[in-house]
Request: fold
Amino acid sequence: MQEIEVIAPNLKHSLSGVTTTVIRLLPIQKKMIGIVATGPGLPEDLPHIRLFKVPFLSNRTTRVWHARRNTEMLMGLFLRTVLRRNLKLLFTSAAQRDHSGFTKWLVSKMDALIATTPQAASFLKHPSTVIMHGVNTELFHPADDKPALRQKLDLPDGFLIGCFGRIRPQKGVDLLVDAAIDVLPSFPEASIVFTGRATKEFEAFQQEQIQKLKDAGLADRVRFLGERPWEEIVETYRALDIFAAPARHEGFGLTPLEAMASGVPAIACHGVGAFSAQIEDGVTGRLVEKDNAPELAAALRSMLDDPAKLTAAGQAARARVEQKFRIEGEAEAIVRVYRSLLSAD
Reply:
């Protein structure tokens, strides 16, 4: 068995962006370094160690504890300071906001920091390495037969627009609904699908959006599919013609890249997450002002008006991801940070 050099904790039961990051990266990183995950909610085929076994690992070997949440930073500190485990502590931050006092204190105790964007780095107030997320271009790829795929997934024909993620105001779901009410009457062959769960806190918000669509006579053309299996989400990307990510706030925002890798142009917002770095405006998709439903509607309208340009944008989107956002590049850059920590005193 390969020596464990890095532990990537996932101290959350439900699927989240952080959990997805761990699931995406570890199969690639395990070919480069001895890495395991720990915690609940992870696939069985992922390299894994039970959390209760971590304190009993040999202290002769220095290991990296790679946290991505406050709870994981705290656990790493406990393991090192209370249980005297031989750990180097690394934290990755995607947050583009001022951190709480507690988070700042935790960050100050880390041996190294990674930020997923330059904006996130600016809020850490400590030296960090900026490593943007990448996409698995083998998993995410254009469809061979889009009509057949839509039939398999029970998705409508014509122009199909998708928006994936939790159903909540932060994700701009209401903005896309308002844009749909503006645009769809002019494009009878266009439909929109949302995937993602509305937690109890946001069930009323989702019902409000559904009622707006009913009042506009568009309830049959804008569907809320709920939370779907990961494998189905991957296929649904390929079935789209346009992907929309109108989020008001985002740490990094991986969904446009996953869509672009699938040959689908994306619309997202300036100044949110890493969207401005991902999308080449007018070439691989469109960038619009955040919290601006009329501008989102105008971008949708311009893309739907020109199917040939839409096809070319999808091809350019795939090429951009292959050139700049491959997951292998992200994995290698993170492993370089691991090795730097392991080679330190």
In short: The mean pLDDT is 94. The domain at 146-324 is CATH 3.40.50.2000 (Rossmann fold). The first helix runs from residue 17 to 29. The chain has two domains: 6-134+326-343, 146-324.
